[in-house]
Amino acid sequence: MTDIDRGQTVPRLEPQQRRSREARARILAAAETLLREDGIDGFSMAAVGKVADMPVGNIYRRFEGKDDLLQALKDVVALRIREAVVKAVQGGDHCSLESYVTAFALAVGDVFSNDEALHRALFDPRVANRPMLETGQGVRQTIFGFFLGGLREHFPTMRDERLASAAKVAFSIITNAAIFKVRGSDPIMSGFSWAAVKSEYGMAAFAYLEKAVTDTPSYKMSPK
């Protein structure tokens, strides 16, 4: 007796759905390749179609336009950044505050420097529309939560409010340095190698946190 005889519906759309997913992945892979090779200036739907060896009409059936495709790609890359940083830091035994902060700075720097051309294109201010900014902010907040959780082990007696404030400063020292470096437009950061960014800004964040243990701020901290 067949599935139809039993009154069951045969999932006829599965092959089509699989082909659609494969086509989407192929388009995103082509978009990545194009951004690495030609940057944001050379990015267009027609150029993506050429790299993907696909009619541009097929791309428009899945993405509304260039901004929509860039947004989808940034979603993928942002998730990749988060997973890489968390995996790298979790993989070590950080018995001291210095080793933890150093590992975090190294992980952030490695993520951006290992695929610098792609990240430079996606973090280009010219494509920083609201959805892309929200994607970046969401992943940044997730990574910050992970960073803060690791710091709690090294500051078990510090008040939550004070620890969160100190963590934000240290986190910003490390991540902002990496973002400004990867954009390639900051004249100060352009003078640093990636090795220096990972080392120097990691040390700066660690030095700040060491100071934060003993100092009580003279200002009133915002609850946000």
Q: Which stretches of 5+ consecutive residues score pLDDT under 50?
A: none
- How many DSSP-defined strands? 0
Our measurement of the CA-to-CA distance between the termini, rounded to an integer number of angstroms, reads 64 Å
Strand content: under 5%
The biggest sheet, with number of strands, parallel, antiparallel or mixed sense and barrel status, is: none
The CATH homologous superfamily name of the largest domain equals Tetracycline Repressor, domain 2
Report the total helices: 9
**Main CATH class of the largest domain:** Mainly Alpha
Q: Average pLDDT, to the nearest integer? A: 88
Structural class: mainly alpha
Taken together, the total number of domains comes to 2
CATH topology of the largest domain: Tetracycline Repressor, domain 2
Instruction: Give the C-alpha Rg.
Output: 22 Å
How much helicity do the residues have? 55-70%
- H/E element string? HHHHHHHHH
What is the second-level CATH architecture of the largest domain?
Orthogonal Bundle
Q: In brief, what are we looking at here?
A:
This protein is mainly α and 224 residues long. The chain has nine helices and no strands. It folds into two domains: 12-63, Homeodomain-like (Arc Repressor Mutant, subunit A, Orthogonal Bundle), CATH 1.10.10.60; 67-214, Tetracycline Repressor, domain 2.
SSE layout:
Blueprint: H1 14-38, H2 45-52, H3 56-60, H4 66-90, H5 97-114, H6 116-122, H7 130-152, H8 160-183, H9 194-214
Descriptive overview:
With 224 residues, the protein is mostly helical. The protein folds into two domains: 52 residues, Homeodomain-like (Arc Repressor Mutant, subunit A, Orthogonal Bundle), CATH 1.10.10.60; 148 residues, Tetracycline Repressor, domain 2, CATH 1.10.357. 70% of the residues lie in helices and 0% in strands. The protein has nine helices and no strands. Helix 1 crosses helix 2, helix 4 runs parallel beside helix 7 and helix 5 runs parallel beside helix 8. The radius of gyration is 22 Å and the shape is elongated. The model has no long low-confidence stretch (mean pLDDT 88).
